[in-house]
Amino acid sequence: MRVLLNSFVLALAVATSWRICSAQLNWTRIVPQGTTVPSVRLDMAVGYDPNNNDLYMFGGEGAQIYNDLWKFDLDLGANNSWTRVHGPQPDSAMTFPRQRFSIVAGFYPQTSGGLFLISTGEGNNRDFFNDIWAFNASFNTSAGWRQLPSAGDIPTERYGAAGGFHRNGTSFYLTHGFSSQRFSDTLRYDLQQNRWITVFGGTNEYAANEPHPRCLLGSTLAGPDQPVFFGGCLSGGMSGGPCPAVDSWAFRNSKWERLDDCPAARQYSGMAAWPFTGDTAVMFGGIETDRSIIMSDKSKSNEVDFVNTATGKWRRLGAQGVGGVGALPDLRQRHGMVAVRDGVLIFGGSSTVDGSSLNDLWLLTGNPDGAPEVGSCGPQWFLYMHLHGFFMIVSWGFMLTAGVFIARYFRHKDPLWFKIHRGLQITGACLSLLGIILVFPGTRALPNFAHGVIGILILIFSIQQIINGLLRPHKEKGVDPPKKRVYWEYWHLWGGRLFILLALINITLGVYLIIAPVAVIAIWFIIFVLWIVAFIIFEIRMRMASDKSE
Question: Which of 201, 258, 332, 471 is the most buried (most CB within 10 A)?
Fold first, then answer.
């Protein structure tokens, strides 16, 4: 009787422990059997075959750039192991994909054998790709590869792009990325028609309600025809913006919708659909440090981030090791991440803890609804370009514009108006120069985009205006001014007014460029409108007073 009672208590304890653990998020390390394993690598392609419960892994960057293909059978339990489907292949061959990394990938199960799909990426000698390849899972050699037809709206060659394939979909998605420039277009490859179709033509770095051009972003498909991505790098490649970024977007109802801000800014993160809940994706890892950052929130060592694309809400949750005492995977970047039958798998990448390259496998299981919150939303995030914007608003949005305003409408307060005007212009120009200096820590290329070019022209002019003001030709009272003075006044006055207007427009471009919060954009437009109203009112008053005096 005692034996039966003890057995019952033990079974009850095990069942209770299982329920507690399953109500949490749990990391389990999967240790392959044998010595045949992929080498450590970054930015590989991963895909999951739900028909056979297999993980596929292709290419990546390590000691070299690879194009080998590996399979991991998740049905074998404790006896699971890696199988090398084929080793590295010559980069010059045309019958299988060339060596590459930073690849968009997915698995199409609704076809004979199932297809592991890969597209785009970067190869040797900075070659970029726009091809799409399919590996038939019924093969066990490189003969399973075939290049799919490139028809329709063929994408530009790129790497660092986002997208993939959802197991219940029929289209492979590709969005954003980089080659000679950063992209923001979104395309889908229809696997029934074998053609590319543009679903979003792209935008620019100043768009208010669309995702700006970028690369190196974490992404997945949260549902059929529903790409979702987070962060990435917006700076460089003929565009500007934060790097890393903090915004996230989901493609729903044939348009991009911005999700709530929540996790720490990052690039090179991993994302996967959460296989047990629709419209849900999970993100892990990424690079959260950069020379452009002054202050930023950081992910906790046990943090995984969940987003519901239907509500736009993120949750920063804590995961535990097996039974609450097991090990946790290192936070990492440039890793593979994919939804599988039992949860989400991650593979490889580079540890952001010690910088080591990895080839380990971890499985995330459990219930996010029972996991503890480890951080609040609304990330603390302040960049040098934010400080740059602050100084530009103070200098051009207030001081330099106020100097022009006083010079125009308060000349009757001579000589006080001139002293105030000169002080505001010199101080404002110095703050503007400081603001220009502060933007360089986050700059990755020459500012060859509109905001940067206009800003440099305005800076040169403001310095010239100060020198020009100090060297102004002398004017005698009661005597007609010499021609030099007339020409100087014409240039000084009208040039100043023109560049003040350009500066106000450029600040407006800037608040959109850095993806400023709505409150900041609203405050700036209030300031802008107040200046316009003030100039109109004082101009009318001055002209009315002039008419009366005549």
Answer: 332
